[in-house]
Every structure is written in C-alpha cells, then in structure tokens.
Amino acid sequence: MNFNKAIVAGNLTRDPEIRSMQNGQQVANLGIASNRYYNDQQGNRQEKTEFHNIVAFGKLADICAKYLKKGTLVLVEGRLQTSNWEGKDGVKRYKTEIIMESMQMGPRRDGSGAERQSQSQERPEQSPISQDEIPVIEAEEMIIEDQGPEKEKVDVKDIPF
C-alpha cells in the first residue's frame, strides 16, 4: 500500500499568486510558514520555521484568491509532488510542492487586533493564550499513567511501535 499525504498548518508568507492555465482553470501558488517549538539539550526554548510551497487548482484556487492574504492562518491537506528540470546552467533542479486537496481557514483578523480586543472584552474569562504559556512535552519525557488500582507507569520507549 502507498500513501502520500501532507498536512500543514501555518501562516501565509505572501498573498496567493493566481494565474490561469490554457484550459481556463485557475492555479494558485502560495507559501506557508509553520513553526516548531522545542527545548534544546540545555533546556532552552527554541523555534524552527519551515517554509512550504503550496499549489491549488480550480475552485480551491478561486477560494484562495478571494479569502487568503499574507499572514492568514490556514490548514492545508494535500499530497507531495516533486518536479525537476534542467536549468540554463545545465544543472538538474528539483522543487517539492504540496498539491492542495482541502483547506481550512483560520479565524479572520484585521490588522489592528480590534477583533481580539472586542472578544476579550465580551468574554473576559477566556483570555488568549500566548505561545510562551503552551507547555512543550518532549516524547522522551512523556509518561502515561494508568488510573487503575496499581498505577503503572509506562515509558514511551517501551511501546513497540
């Protein structure tokens, strides 16, 4: 069995670039940046950003053109596709993209943050959580506890898969 699936959530790095193919179908090219937070060996919090090239066709491309802009939070599901070509200098080049199959847009925001302020005034008990407040759990540290009478601890390294 073969499986080719990519799921990426992040912010758009630029406005979608829209063009039409010869058959009239729309194509959208967009970039997404996703962040990963982890603690290094010294216990310092680190951040690593990955950049992903996304291509959408047809109605998805139309939706991207209409609703997405730089900075928008979006979740994309699709498949990986690598193309290759020979450059003018004779060197073979490669490009891997995610071909969008579905998308979920994040919450709408205006640039001023007024939406966030009005939401926190309406519901003060639900203040937004900053990235620094989200705990980072490393797989090696994770311990699963059984709530049964013997309270057995299981180390992730002992799980056979």
Largest sheet: 5 strands, mixed, barrel
Mean pLDDT: 80
Which structural class best describes the helix and strand composition?
mainly beta
What is the H/E string?
Answer: EEEEHEEHEE
Distance between the termini: 18 Å
What is the fold named in CATH at topology level? Answer: OB fold (Dihydrolipoamide Acetyltransferase, E2P)
Shape: extended
Could you give the order of strands across the largest sheet? 1-3-4-6-5
Can you tell me the CATH class? Mainly Beta
Stretches where pLDDT is under 50 for at least 5 consecutive residues are 111-124, 136-146
Per DSSP E runs of 2 or more residues, the count of β-strands stands at 8
CATH superfamily: Nucleic acid-binding proteins
Structurally, the number of domains stands at: 1
% residues in beta strands: 35-45%
Question: Rg from C-alpha positions?
Answer: 21 Å
Which architecture would the CATH scheme give at its second level? Beta Barrel
Concise account of the structure shown:
About 10% of the residues lie in helices and about 45% in strands. It has about 160 residues and is mostly beta strands.
Written overview of the protein:
With 161 residues, this protein is mainly beta. The protein has one domain (6-108, 134-158): OB fold (Dihydrolipoamide Acetyltransferase, E2P). It is 12% helix and 45% strand. The protein has two helices and eight strands, in the order E-E-E-E-H-E-E-H-E-E. The protein has helices at residues 58-67, 114-122, and strands at 6-12, 17-20, 26-39, 45-57, 73-86, 92-105, 143-145, 153-155. Strands 1-3-4-6-5 form a five-stranded mixed β-barrel. Strands 7-8 form a two-stranded antiparallel sheet. The longest helix is centred in the middle third of the chain and has 10 residues, at 58-67. The relative contact order is 0.15. Mean pLDDT is 80; it is low at 111-124 and 136-146.
